[in-house]
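PROTEIN DESIGN WORKSHEET
SECTION A - STRUCTURE
LENGTH: 304
TOKENS:
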């Protein structure tokens, strides 16, 4: 209910205008590692110094034309180049709508392929983020297509709040692949997604366990200590090798816990976003954490 209310409120023109103007000062900088690639690389260096890896994301979703899609693709090529030149321990995550998918599937495919080819050249990796449910089928279709060409250099995200995700996991896991499992952060109807947090949590653990049993490399993307505890129990009871999974968290959330896991010898990674187009990402972070609603209140007061 809280998440639905925040996502709805965020579409209000007054709220959006005020937060776009003041949000970085009022708390968005906690979740966004700067506006430029140079700033993001410095954040990555600091995180790497704690023994934690990074996946770097250039914020942005649906583009309006081919020129913007081309620019988004070029930004990812620059990111892979900067990661290589700087020597930081990082890969990249991207959204296909930022590559032009919503306008032309061929644009999305062409740009994705070029990015993955660059990652393969540098022996790096691209994570395809999952967006809201209208894009699930096409995202998985393009993932399968590019993964067949570069099996070691690309993975995809599955969302635990979607009913379909267990079936998607089973279908895609022959042969084993690389998945990030998350709860899901978009506003979805009950026709496609579990409305109950308890059901989402149970499905999350089920997806992680099945992914590991099927032999996939599994990125466990959650800040929920209870779920992490359930995953660790499964790992220990089933002797899952530590080089077959990692724990992932978002920049600005739960780093002490992630660092603790790293100190225990587990693979860990922070999802680090940067860029000018941070509003939609920030809203989803606020919607996930009721305490962050204070940032909305402050922004509204500042805008009066």
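SECTION B - SEQUENCE
RESIDUE ASSIGNMENT:
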């Amino acid at each position: 209910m809280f998440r639905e209310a925040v996502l709805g409120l965020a579409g209000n023109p007054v709220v959006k205008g005020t937060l776009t103007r003041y949000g970085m000062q009022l708390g968005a900088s906690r979740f966004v590692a700067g506006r430029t690639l140079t700033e993001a690389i410095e954040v990555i260096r600091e995180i790497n110094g704690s023994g934690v890896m990074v996946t770097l994301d250039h914020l942005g979703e649906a583009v309006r034309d081919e020129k913007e899609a081309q620019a988004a693709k070029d930004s990812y090529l620059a990111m892979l180049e900067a990661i290589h030149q700087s020597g930081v321990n990082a890969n990249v995550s991207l959204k296909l709508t930022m590559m032009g998918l919503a306008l032309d599937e061929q644009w999305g495919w062409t740009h994705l392929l070029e990015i993955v080819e660059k990652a393969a050249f540098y022996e790096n990796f691209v994570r395809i983020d999952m967006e809201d449910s209208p894009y699930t089928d096409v995202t998985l279709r393009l993932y399968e297509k590019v993964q067949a060409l570069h099996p070691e250099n690309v993975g995809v995200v599955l969302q635990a709040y979607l009913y379909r995700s267990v079936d998607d996991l089973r279908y895609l896991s022959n042969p084993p692949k690389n998945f990030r499992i998350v709860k899901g952060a978009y506003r979805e109807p009950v026709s496609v997604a579990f409305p109950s947090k308890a059901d989402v949590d149970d499905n999350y653990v089920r997806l992680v366990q099945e992914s590991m049993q099927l032999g996939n490399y599994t990125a466990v993307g959650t800040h929920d200590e209870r779920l992490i505890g359930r995953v660790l129990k499964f790992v220990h009871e089933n002797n899952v090798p530590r080089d077959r999974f990692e724990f992932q968290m978002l920049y600005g959330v739960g780093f002490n816990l992630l660092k603790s896991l790293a100190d225990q010898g587990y693979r860990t990674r922070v999802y680090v976003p940067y860029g000018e187009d941070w509003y939609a990402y920030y809203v989803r972070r606020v919607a996930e954490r009721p305490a962050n609603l204070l940032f909305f209140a402050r922004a509204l007061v500042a805008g009066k």
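SECTION C - NOTES
The chain is about 50% helix and 15% strand.
The two ends are 27 Å apart (CA to CA).
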